[in-house]
Write a structure and sequence with these properties.
It contains twelve helices and eight strands. A hairpin with a 2-residue loop joins strand 3 and strand 4.
Length: 276
């Protein structure tokens, strides 16, 4: 996906087309949120298949192997599909990995809260349809959607936090520490010490949950913020690299290009063309 953000509705007709097409398990290079208003979602993710009745929210993190198949119920189906790059909401993206890594699909009760989520999706869609959509408005609306989903999740599953496995809670703690310190030129040992554990054990947990090493997650967080700064600020490449703990511009540029396939300056130019 070349766009930073995309939203579109899936109606009965689109659902039938998806079910009639070849739909193998696959991975995305973007984040995806599905808000189900009518019908069911058959979802293969984390090597397990489940059916979820609407209303529901399903968040698929970048890189997860999954397959969604929309199912009509009482001849009805409607869902919002929202796709975005991680740098679109860098402030909360890693929190989402922590919230949803062990539960992609969440069923809700019908009522005021979910009606408001649907309204927020409609507002995002209307703004997205404008000739020059204001991505700042869309960003705030999307953050509001995730806040409301998390609030509702806690009401429906109030004991979830207490039931989380030790590894899951440690991973969440790591993400919280990372969010406060990712701008530092700090490595695995720094984060392990903050969590009172060995680097090896922290690496094992991160591999089990996100299939990435601690170093990879730290670097991903830095580069997510770098993309955000390249889009939203006029800082030079060297200044952005320095802000994120890279002391040499050439090293920052090499890391960025290796991970994204573009130099920082090329990425900034391409993004400006997309949002202009």
């Amino acid at each position: 996906m070349n766009e930073t953000f995309k939203i579109y509705p899936v109606s009965v007709e689109e659902a039938k087309k998806i079910n009639a097409s070849v739909n193998e398990p696959h991975q995305h290079d973007y984040e995806e949120l599905i808000i189900g208003i009518e019908g069911q979602l058959e979802h293969f993710i984390d090597f397990d298949s489940t059916r979820t009745d609407s209303p529901y929210a399903s968040f698929i993190t970048k890189g997860k192997v999954h397959r969604v198949q929309p199912r009509l119920k009482n001849k009805l189906f409607f869902a919002w599909v929202i796709r975005f790059q991680s740098e679109f909401i860098p402030e909360i993206i890693f929190q989402l990995y922590g919230f949803y890594h062990n539960q992609a699909n969440i069923e809700f009760e019908r009522g005021t809260c979910f009606d408001r989520i649907n309204t927020l999706c409609e507002m995002m869609y209307l703004e997205y349809q404008q000739e020059n959509p204001d991505l700042a408005i869309i960003r705030h609306l999307l953050q509001a959607v995730f806040i409301m989903i998390e609030s509702q999740r806690k009401k429906i599953l109030p004991d979830t936090e207490g039931l989380l496995k030790t590894q899951s809670q440690t991973f969440k703690n790591f993400l919280a520490v990372l969010e406060e310190n990712f701008r530092r030129p700090a490595g695995v040992s720094f984060y392990a010490e903050k969590l009172f554990m060995t680097p090896r054990n922290l690496n094992v947990i991160c591999q089990n949950i996100l299939q990435q090493s601690v170093s990879e997650i730290i670097e991903t967080r830095k580069l997510t913020e770098a993309k955000n700064m390249l889009i939203t600020t006029d800082l030079t490449i060297a200044e952005i690299g320095f802000e994120l703990g890279y002391n040499e511009k050439s090293y920052f540029t090499n890391v960025f290009k290796k991970k994204t396939g573009q130099s920082p300056s090329a990425f900034r130019t391409s993004m400006k063309k997309l949002v202009s």
